[in-house]
Each structure stands twice: as structure tokens, then as C-alpha cells.
Amino acid sequence: xxxxxxxxxxxxxxxxxxxxxxxxxxxxxxxxxxxxxxxxxxxxxxxxxxxxxxxxxxxxxxxxxxxxxxxxxxxxxxxxxxxxxxxxxxxxxxxxxxxxxxxxxxxxxxxxxxxxxxxxxxxxxxxxxxxxxxxxxxxxxxxxxxxxxxxxxxxxxxxxxxxxxxxxxxxxxxxxxxxxxxxxxxxxxxxxxxxxxxxxxxxxxxxxxxxxxxxxxxxxxxxxxxxxxxxxxxxxxxxxxxxxxxxxxxxxxxxxxxxxxxxxxxxxxxxxxxxxxxxxxxxxxxxxxxxxxxxxxxxxxxxxxxxxxxxxxxxxxxxxxxxxxxxxxxxxxxxxxxxxxxxxxxxxxxxxxxxxxxxxxxxxxxxxxxxxxxxxxxxxxxxxxxxxxxxxxxxxxxxxxxxxxxxxxxxxxxxxxxxxxxxxxxxxxxxxxxxxxxxxxxxxxxxxxxxxxxxxxxxxxxxxxxxxxxxxxxxxxxxxxxxxxxxxxxxxxxxxxxxxxxxxxxxxxxxxxxxxxxxxxxxxxxxxxxxxxxxxxxxxxxxxxxxxxxxxxxxxxxxxxxxxxxxxxxxxxxxxxxxxxxxxxxxxxxxxxxxxxxxxxxxxxxxxxxxxxxxxxxxxxxxxx
Length: 625
Prior knowledge:
α1 (6-30) packs across α12 and α2 (37-56) packs antiparallel against α3. A hairpin with a 2-residue loop joins β14 (497-505) and β15. By secondary structure, the chain is an alpha+beta fold.
């Protein structure tokens, strides 16, 4: 019976992408650093895994190229010396060729690859590097002796500690230190930090690369007080498991998650409508039933929303490649540090963040990070540093991209904006340094006089800002000349079921996402200066904009306002009344209403009445003018 390979090939394309991302991630950290045996091992096993999967789905060309890369990584592992910058660049090109070949099989690439020539080139490079390092001989001499031994192979060592011994975790730590005297500890369970914290169950498991005879190492280990027994076994190279959150997940089609979310939203609407129609006739017992129903629906909502959350690592794992490519094109040395990659965010938001983060990082490499020689003259490290920092604050996630480059040119931004007619000289003179930084978000504005592959066209931060704000987020920019720049994105964890303020203006009820509101204020007589549309709040005069102007018609004095803080300005948006705060299922605005500036979504109230969700950030553009 013929086997239908299609579903297995779909799985191959998905998993090979993960292995390629892993390879690119390690390559970006490898050049010019100390030899990292664990990274080399993962490169080898990733190529080995792609080879095995490709062969099983009859992609012979992919299997051949993966096998050549596997052999190259094996030589690196035997050589035990980090590849230099030139060699890393060559390996990077080989892996890109493998990526192109996989995309060709997937129907996403029509380019041709001279596979035989490429494989010969890879094999030739491996042999040449062996000769340069003097490692073509499979035997190497042991230092300070005339003896010869074959190349060491990794082994697993299980060290059993006497449970009755005093402080077993300390005994295990001493055994681990003793092992390091006779070779290289590749990994251990428990780890050193766990042993220091006393986390130990009686067995220390170590993956070890010995530099001495194992019989001698065993004798020395047994001398450690508390060691009862030692068992060893050979390590077999197996397809690696990607050590991320995704190990704990099952793969579910995104369409199913989207349908679940939609059904949950409809359930919330149905609950609100049912309660609204029956609330006048409910008995005390009925109210208890409704309360239990509401709790169950709330739990369903939280579960569905959490099922849509993905760790930021699904995005950041691809960014080392962006840094590597940008650094190679500009001739710079850059290292990328990622912190908080376990922070989770809604899949829809995560997908939309790829382009903004990619642009910010390319911008940092191209505009911010100085060439190595210039950095050395300034007393900086030769390699620039870009750090991505993610953290969760309440119902928001904040992602910061920080570089240690030259900082932004605020005066240059002002001059460029004036020359393009986007700003008057008078307004430019009145702008503070921080205010001028946001001129970089104007469409078409760039301070570069030349156009490169990554910048100079004036298409960038304006798109980043638009994407972030379209998802209910905020873009912040800060920079210090000579020290670097920080660009932060603050985004809600989810954008489908949100807490919403229900407000009334011009006889209409509208919704404002609570994430956009700093606070709600009652506009009293004593603090309201009607002639100037100003409101005194905590000793500061803040401009009031009437939401009625958004709908047209006669403008009356607002009774309640929402304080909105944007990076560029603070203001109060005035309304007639605050009605309620509700969880609303927000649906996309149908055409042609998408043309209305500030219209971000539509929902349905318990009364069955539709309500438009407005974004005050966009609403106020016309109101300010």
C-alpha cells in the first residue's frame, strides 16, 4: 500500500524551520568567541535531524546537503576550536542554501542551486580546515606524555551519592568539581546552581567528554566522600528536542483557536443579552444561577485566551539571523542579548510584531551601532550590543530594544523635517530633545543621505508605530547621544476580548479600550476653564477635547473625561457621561467604516445594540488640528 507522504512533508517543513532557526541562532553567537561544545553539538544534531526527516519523506537533495553540513559540524566538534569570522560567514551561506532548497521543495522558491558543486565546496572546506589545524590524524597526543589515545567520545556518567551522607547535594557538587579536573562537563542534572540550592535526589547525571582514561576517573570519583557507585554509558547522537515551551504544547491549527475565540466572544454577548432581557424578573435563586454561569463563562474566556498565548521566543529565535545578516552587510560586529523570551503574548499580536522588531534591529545596526574602529576610539567594546528585554506588567507586555550605539540625532531630525515641509522652523525651535525623537515616526523621513539595503528610504518607524497602535499599543523612544537608544513597545496581552469603558456623547454610546485610559476624571466647575478648554489636574493645566466634535453637531460642556497619555502629548477627552465598564468581544469594523479615523472595532451590548470601539490616539488627530 502506498503511503501518502503529504501530511508528513507538511510536518517536515514546519519542524525543519525550527531547526534552521536554531542553527542561525547559534551561528550568530559563534564567530570570534571561545569554543562552545554544546552549541556545536546542537548544530550537528540539528543537521542530522533535518537529514533524517528529509530522507524519510524522500527529499533526497535536502538529505544530501544536510549530510554534508552534518559532516562539517562533526569536524568542528572534533577540532575543538571556534570558527573564525570568515569560516562562520561561509557556514552561514551554506545554511542559507539549505534553507533555499527546503523552500524550493515547499514551492516558495524557484531559484536553482548547483547542489553537487556546493557539497564539494563544503567537503573541501572541512578538509582544508583540518589541515590548517593539524587535526587530520584521528589520534592526538596527551599533553606532557608520549602516550597516544584515540579521540574522546562523550559518555553519560551517573554518580550515586549515599543518602545517609551529610549534605548529599554538597557531595554531588564535589563530585562534579572532581570530574572537571579530568575532562569537560557538557551538561549536568541537577545543574550547579540547583546543587547549590540543595536540589538533589541522590543521583548526579553528567554528560562528559573525558581527557583521561575512564578507569582512572572512576577511581578518583570514588575517593570523594559520599560517592557510592558510578555507572557509565556511551552517548548516542539523537535528533534534538528544541528546548522551549513548545515541548509542552500540542500543535493546533490556528483556525481552530480563532473559531474558539469567536465562539467565546459570541457566548459573552449571548450571556449579556440574556441577563439584560431577564434581569427585571429574576428571583434570588435565579441570580445565583446567573452568577455561576458568569463565572463559568469567565473561566472559559481565560482558558481560550491563554491557549492563544505563545512565548516571545517564537519570534526572538529568528532575530539572531537578522543581526548576523545586517552586521555582515555593514561590516560591523554586533551581539544580540534576549531577556524575557518566556513572556507570553497573543498569537495575533506576536505575528504582527515580526516586521516592527526586525526593522528596529536593522535600524540599530545600520544607524546606531558604530563601526568597530570608531567604537574602539570612543573607548567602547569593539562589538556593539543590542538587548531585547521583555516583561509583563499587568495586562500588558513591554518589549524594549536597547543598543549601545551613537544615539539619535535630534537636531538632524528637526532639520530634515523642516526641509521636507513637515515642520516649521518656529515649531522645530520650540521642540525639546525628546519630542524631536518622535519625528523619526513621520512617513518618508530619514536622516541618511544614502540609501542602503536596510535603511535610508524613510520607511520604518512610521510603520512600526502604526502596527503597534493598531493593536492598542504605544511606542516609546528614548536616546542619549553617544550612549545609545531604547525603543519600547507596550502592547496588551490580547486584543479580542477587552475591558472597555462605555461612555455617552452626542446621544451615542461608544466604547474606549481601558488600556488607552490613564484615569477617569469628573469635570467640575472649579477646575474647568471653559474659555480655553483647559482642566486643572494635580496643579497641571491639561487641554480638554470634546468627543462630540468627532461626531459633529453642537458642542456642550463635557461632564466626565478620560485622561490619555501618549508619548507626544497628554489630554483629556470629554464625554457627557460614564455608563459602565464591560468585557466586550471586539470584532473588525466592516467596510466602508474602516475609512473612519479612530474606529478600531465594533461589539454588541447586552441590549443587542451595536457599539463602536474608538481609539482616542487616532480620534484626536483631527480634533487637535
